[in-house]
């Protein structure tokens, strides 16, 4: 089997006496979209934080393409190819939508990444940014400030910034949360496109069963911080451990 893009090996973090992520060993491969599910407080966000570098593990390892990045900070992981959907606070609220995307392209270019290395002029960066905005259907709002956007459009801008970053590992935390029924499909279609066209790996924390069914190749289930199920969606959802113990009711409720 090919080398995983991303691996966590016995990854754990303890907050005081509470083990929030409990020795999770898991590999993620190129071209694969994995949904991470589990009841509230299961450790999904904490596992994400350990991968993206928001918090540091108390035990275990994170490896990106074989390289140990367990001790790397957020910026270093980002530079190496871990891209987490920008939260609202990562946007520059007073800059235009276009400028936000241009800044990410420029930052990536300055760090020697290849995707936009040909875009060496102001015009070319603007054209690359516009192409991304068209993809996420934000081009009509290009001159508005990020702060002026609706919630749904701000989420689309987060996706646009991630596409501009073009990481090896795309991380989405409930990407359609708070979106209207009209807006959510745009973001879901984009994630499906990313999956189809890139050799990246995509991680998705998600509660909505329909989203998981549409997008996921694989589901991993966390419970009390531990990995308790891992496999194709139909198999995992039908498993006794998921149905009986915790997931069935929660996911059906959605
Ligand atoms: N910084 C922290 N300090 C102390 N405890 C924390 C911290 N972050 C998370 N926890 C605890 O770790 C556990 C896992 O939380 P986490 O937010 O990762 O769960 P989750 O699966 O993402 O839940 P949800 O679906 O509600 O977002 C919870 O019991 C939470 O209270």
UniProtKB/TrEMBL annotation:
Pfam families: ABC_tran, BCA_ABC_TP_C. Residues 6-249 form the ABC transporter domain. PROSITE patterns: ABC_TRANSPORTER_1, ABC_TRANSPORTER_2. One of its GO terms (molecular function) is ATP binding. The keyword Disulfide bond does not apply. Keywords: ATP-binding, Nucleotide-binding, Transport. InterPro entries: AAA+_ATPase, ABC_AA/LPS_Transport, ABC_transporter-like_ATP-bd, ABC_transporter-like_CS, BCA_ABC_TP_C, P-loop_NTPase. The keyword Ribosomal protein does not apply. Belongs to the ABC transporter superfamily. This is ABC transporter ATP-binding protein. It comes from Nitratireductor aquimarinus.
């Amino acid at each position: 089997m090919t080398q995983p893009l991303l691996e966590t090996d016995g990854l754990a973090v303890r907050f005081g006496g509470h083990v929030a992520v409990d020795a999770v060993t898991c590999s993620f491969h190129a071209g694969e979209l994995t949904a991470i599910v589990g009841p509230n407080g299961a450790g999904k966000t904490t596992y994400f934080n350990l991968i993206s570098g928001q918090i540091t593990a108390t035990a275990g390892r994170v490896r990106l393409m074989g390289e140990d990045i367990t001790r790397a900070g957020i910026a270093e992981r980002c530079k190496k190819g871990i891209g987490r959907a920008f939260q609202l606070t990562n946007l520059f609220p007073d800059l235009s939508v276009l400028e936000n995307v241009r800044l990410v392209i420029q930052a990536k270019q300055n760090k020697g990444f290849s995707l936009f290395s040909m875009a060496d002029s102001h015009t070319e960066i603007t054209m690359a940014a516009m192409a991304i905005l068209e993809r996420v259907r934000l081009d009509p709002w290009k001159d508005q400030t990020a702060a002026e956007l609706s919630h749904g459009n701000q989420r689309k801008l987060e996706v646009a910034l991630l596409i501009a970053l073009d990481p090896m590992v795309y991380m989405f935390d409930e990407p359609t949360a708070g979106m209207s029924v009209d807006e959510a499909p745009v973001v879901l279609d984009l994630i499906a496109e990313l999956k189809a066209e890139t050799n990246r790996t995509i991680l998705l924390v998600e509660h909505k069963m329909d989203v998981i069914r549409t997008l996921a190749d694989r589901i991993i289930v966390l419970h009390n911080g531990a990995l308790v199920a891992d496999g194709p969606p139909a198999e995992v959802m039908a498993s006794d451990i998921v149905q009986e113990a915790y997931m069935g009711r929660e996911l059906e409720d959605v």
